[in-house]
Amino acid sequence: MNRIVLALCIFIAFVGNAHTYYVSKTGKNTNPGTKIAPFKTIQFAVNKLNAGDICYIRNGIYREHIQFKNSGKQNKPIILRNFPGEKVTITPTFKRHNWSKHAKNIYKIPCSEKVVQVFIAGKPSMQASFPTIREGELSTKTWGNIFASPNKTVKVPGIEKYKDITGARLVGICGRGLVALNGKVIHQSGKIVELQNEAFYWNKIHEKAYLGKGKGFLVGKYAFLDAPGEWFSNGKYLYYYAKPKEFNPNEIEIRTKHVAVSLADKKYIHLQGITIYAGNISLDNSKQCIINQVTILFPTPFFTFESGFDRFGGTLNGMDYNQPKNWSGKV
Predict the structure, then answer these.
(1) Residue 136's pLDDT band (boundaries 50, 70, 90)?
(2) Which of 72, 146, 245, 305 has minimal Cβ neighbours within 10 Å of its Cβ?
(3) How far apart are CA 221 and CA 210, in angstroms?
(4) Which residues pair with 232 in a beta bridge?
């Protein structure tokens, strides 16, 4: 009898230490976080979660960048999940409505943050480029012809129509197509550009394998903004080239962060039943975390233009000692 009472007391103490919280788009962070009086933001709730706690998120799109403050324990994980039967999307993107007309079909907004991706009606839009290509274009058919030389100069036919493209970035695939070459333009003379890049392949030894004839394109200059659907950011303004009579600020989503949910350096955290849109899940140095029934859409930009094809560690960054279950993704 005494053993039964002791076991019951231990069970009650275990359950009593755990809390259940709720988040809703209609809630308030001044609420207690109950089902009838939920919190408004996920991050506010996450900051309160300790080992054994669970947080249910109600239906909606939450434009947040989530960072976990605490870890769970082996038998008392922290659980962040959708309310059963409801659709929850977490995205670090944001919308702005203070656009102004800059030129014919080109609109702008003040934006000091580094923009890494822009979405139009849920689809990724391409940075202004020469020649014009599409975001995520793995085929080089729409890329321009280039010729890379060991002295870090690249011939780009057609680029001579621009007076000065210093500061632009070139991405290309030459030679045997083994790696993407890239670099920042530090000088232009007609159709020849000189690049700043310390990669190993800029020499005679690797010329046949990595240099010579190939395909490529340039980004990073306002002058390249010449086609509907393109965007350009200079650290002060974000510019967008709209189709004639089709500009709709409510359809434009701006991404300045790679990560939507960070479990970095944490243990025993479970994510379940959530859609991650235009963001990654960071699991750097985390252990025993479970990603279950999670959909990840557009986890990383196709290019960040700092290291060619940059995937920022892949869809789930840092998978060692963690468990992905029943998840899906789209890039």
Answers:
(1) low
(2) 245
(3) 26
(4) 239
* Rounded Cα gap, residues 153 and 147, in angstroms: 8
End-to-end CA distance of the chain: 59
Best-predicted range by mean pLDDT (5-19, 135-149, 173-187, 299-313): 173-187
Owning domain of residue 28: 18-92+257-330
Q: Torsion over CA of 16, 272, 125 and 128, rounded to 10 degrees?
A: 60
Q: Which of 212, 242, 269 finishes a domain? A: 212
Query: What tokens appear for 23 in the block?
Result: 């988040």
* pLDDT of the residue at 48: 97
Q: Which residues contact 58 (CB under 8 A, 6 or more apart)?
A: 22, 23, 24, 25, 38, 83, 86, 88
Distance, in Å, from the CA atom of 247 to the CA atom of 241, rounded to the nearest integer, reads: 9
Has residue 169 been placed in a domain?
A: yes
- How many structural domains does the chain have? 2
Instruction: Using the 3D structure, point to which of 212, 229, 245 is the last residue of a domain.
Output: 212
pLDDT at 201: 85
